[in-house]
Amino acid sequence: MLQDLFDEDIDSVLGFRTKKLVSIKDRRLGFIHRGVQFAVVLYIIVYVVFINKGYLKTELQTGSVITAVEGETITRENNALKYWDSTEAAYPPLEPGGVFIATKVLLTKQQTRGVCADPAMPCTDSSQCTRGLGQCKNKVCMETQWCPAEDPTDQIVTETFPLTGTADFLIWFKGSIKFMDSETQFSTMVDRDPVIWPDDGANTYSVADLMEIAGTTFEAVKDSGAIFDVLLYWSCNLDLSSRCSPSLVVTRVDASSTNPRGSGFSYRRAVYYGSGDSESRDLYKMTGIRFLVRSTGVGYRISMEAVMLQLSSAMSLLTVAQVVADFMMLYILPERKRYAAKKYDQTKDFSDMLEELERKQKDKEMEPKEGQIAVDYTEEDDQM
Asked: Which of 6, 46, 71, 146 is deepest in the core (most CB within 10 A)?
């Protein structure tokens, strides 16, 4: 095989291929070629330019958010009205990256350390209670704990306060974002007055409005609570806009397709008073809606680099039309063999032809001219 390679004509092995321009008079190929070109141009104009905005340079950044809660509600306690404001219903008042609004509060007052029944631990014998500490009595474990234990079924021990009025609490979102490449910053923290949704440029939303944006209702989450992701999304034109306002995207995160009701959200906090053996506490179980707040966005501006990139990509894509038409012509159409014969042409080895012409020219020059006689002689002939 190696010998066959050396025997090959070097001009054939290292031959150069170039394109041959042939005009194929076939309307089918013309339709295919122009059709693919039209599809490529349509893709560039509609998707790349208008939908994807390929001529823009984008920059993704994250920002910061602070919240302010305002509102008040009234519940009834032992036939007496109890007033709740945002300080009590939105606790803790300052939560990094979030805010909590209570929808139901369970209050167990004047708990002290001791041994008492735990309604959350029913039993039939002491082995079902805390080992070494608890005892089963009257089908309930007697445990060492804060007494009396929380019992939502006993309104004398644990009072229940449904805070239905918190649906009208207002949350003011103040956000800021900075795009580092262009040193451009946008902020709503300087706004002096709240703008309530659904007005243009809204920065303040009621709890019920946020539920509506998330695709649920306050009534659906008030008993078990819920967790929502609140995103302040900025989309800013860095070339033209002197002001950019975020849009609000609210998504429930404690629910899923397999658990549409969600896991809910609640936590407990205690208020202590007294000291030593006389220390007591009031236990609050806070059920409600927790909003996890964040800020992110994209800034865009016209970029010559992006424009040149899209133009070069478009020119490259236009060659697809030629490739498709060639494929149809050479492999699909019935006349493919005739078209192939016209498309491909192999030249003669002109370098060998030139060598042959030069050899013949030299041979011709060595031949005696007309009227001359070729004489061969030696030195001996010359001495004679």
From this structure: 71
Of 252, 291, 232, which Cα lies nearest the Cα of 96? Answer: 291
Give the Cβ contact number of residue 268 at 10 Å: 11
CA distance 182 to 237: 11
Q: Give the span between the Cα atoms of 211 and 12, in whole angstroms.
A: 77
Q: Which ranges of 178-246 would DSSP assign to H, the alpha helix?
A: 207-214, 218-221
Q: 12 falls in which pLDDT band (50, 70, 90)?
A: low
Cα 153 from Cα 147, distance rounded (Å): 16
Q: What is the DSSP letter of 9?
A: -
Which of 55, 63, 46, 60 shows the shortest CA–CA distance to 301? Answer: 55
Structure tokens at 162: 């449904």
At residue 352, the 3 state secondary structure works out as helix
Distance (Å, whole) CA 245 – CA 247: 7
Question: Lowest-confidence range among 66-80, 227-241, 282-296?
Answer: 66-80
Helix, coil or strand: residue 313: helix
Residues 173 and 205 sit within 8 Å (Cβ to Cβ): yes
Closest CA to 119 of 156, 159, 155, 152: 152
- Concatenated DSSP letters of 251-287: EE-S--SS-TT----EEEEEEEES-GGG-EEEEEEEE
Average pLDDT over residues 276-288: 91
Query: What global pTM score does this model have?
Result: 0.72
Alpha carbon distance 119, 139 (integer Å): 10
The token duo for 87 is 């300080």
Residue 255's identity, in one-letter code, is A
**CA dist., res. 185 & res. 240, Å (int):** 13
State whether residue 290 is helix, strand or coil. Answer: strand
Per-residue pLDDT band at 384 (split at 50, 70, 90): very low
d(CA 254, CA 261): 9
